[in-house]
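User: My collaborator sent over this chain with a note saying "see what the structure looks like." That's all I know about it. Can you take a look?
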Amino acid sequence: MIKKSRLWMIFVFGIVLVLAACGEKSQEDVVKKLGENVEDLTGYKANVEMKMNTGQEEQLFKIDVWHKKEDFYRVSLSSNKDDKGGQIILKNKDGVFVLTPELKKSFKFQSEWPENSSQPYLYQSLVEDISGDEEAEFTTDDNHYIFKARTNYQSNNSLPYQEIYFDKEKYTPTLVKILDTDGNTVVEVKFNSFELDPSFKDKDFEIDQNMASSTTPEDVPTSGDGVTDELQVMVPIETIGAELTDRMEVDLENGKRIISTFTGEKNFTLVQEKMNVVETLSSPVEVNGDIVNLGFGAVGALSDNSVEWDYNGMNFYLASDELTREELIEVAQSVQGQEVK
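Assistant: Without extra context I'll predict from the sequence alone. Here is the result:
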């Protein structure tokens, strides 16, 4: 006869085996499932809110992401402070573009975007960052699989890690926290909705369709001798120790250009321009550089010694032979202070 104590041990051992079989998935299981999801999906639509706290005023903006397999992307970005509309990153069979419909401007990039850098609002990029980090940390809560993995920001070493939350049932992202070197959350990306395998039309990823998706602002005339409102001169809050030493205003045929020179240990020049008349849509301007998200709803074209972007109906060009790429981004991200002229 089997003793009661032995029967109890057998019973407990059986319970342990059952619990183990029904328990949480391992890190390897989850990474494998995420990879299979990305491989199998035909596309997705995501509605995203991004909150940034880079030391100045907190910034909020929304992002709508469309992806169609194999390599079609449409990322629409807009800030709650930009009353002139936002910008669109578009990738189709013809290349990678940044569109500013309100200004009828478009840039074409010789770029490997989005593969060349972390993109916290793209499903594939998050999964690639996790699978590519052998030291990624894995935890769970009641509803999420959570990873802490390294980021891949080529022009910003001050944000080395990200915490990524995936829904346990759908394996889709719900939240991303990008951390600074002290472990503080600097950027928070919240996925309000995530639709797998939606239907798309071919024109959804065409330049003309997206350039026509927004109307020209009422206060920017498209013809004639319209006059802009008072030009708000924007100045950088972060100057890398340089000071404003010269400012020149140039009246253009259809607007105004302001050239501000900053002098210090590292010199740079900021050019701001506002046009009274929106030019007719022309072919995209090809640029040699990388796409960089400046954090206030603006997307810039970054090269080794300059960064150019459009924001709130104005064009900005920051140039320096002395600032690093990371410093160019830092100064550009801080161009939010205003001087009313």
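A starting point for your reply to your collaborator: The longest helix spans residues 4-22.
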